[in-house]
Amino acid sequence: MNKKIVFLVEDDKDDVGFSIRAFKKNKSLLKYIIMAYDGIQAEKFLFSEDETELKKIQNMPDLIILDLKLPFLGGLEILKKIRERKYTRNIPVVVFTSSDDPEDLKNSYLLGANSFVKKPEDYEEYIETLKKVVDYWLEINMTLSHDRTI
User: Fold this and answer.
1) Domain segments of the chain: what residues?
2) Model pLDDT, residue 86
3) Which CATH code is given to the segment(s) 4-140?
4) Contact 18/123 with Cβ under 8 angstroms?
5) How far is CA 133 from CA 40, 54, 114, in A?
6) pTM (2 d.p.)
7) Which residues, at least 6 apart from 109, have a Cβ–Cβ distance to it below 8 Å?
8) What's the whole-number mean pLDDT along residues 24-28?
């Protein structure tokens, strides 16, 4: 089985720590975790104009876990850009947020989110929920894969 790349876009330090613990439960599956702590970092990683086509393709994650409430550039703006770009449009995006605002839910799906998951407040539930999300999107669900070669 190919190991996978997960791109976590999260600004809350506690949630980053919880997420890393959840990923460690899947360590045999994950190749590595790429992190961005705000919308600008996420944008730079996903849409860098400095990279060659081959490098862009090879560095693309297999799953993006995206918080909505990010500094500088919000999660919905990042999601919109992800769906507009050739190299990122087929990557599964899970909005993983503390928001329970119906508008955030609606707008996430309208912009192309594959899933919208509310972050549990309980530590153990948080880790278990994120583990289930990663298991589903990287082990169970069949997605259009992006070819890492040209």
Assistant:
1) 4-140
2) 83
3) 3.40.50.2300
4) yes
5) 25, 29, 11
6) 0.86
7) 116
8) 67
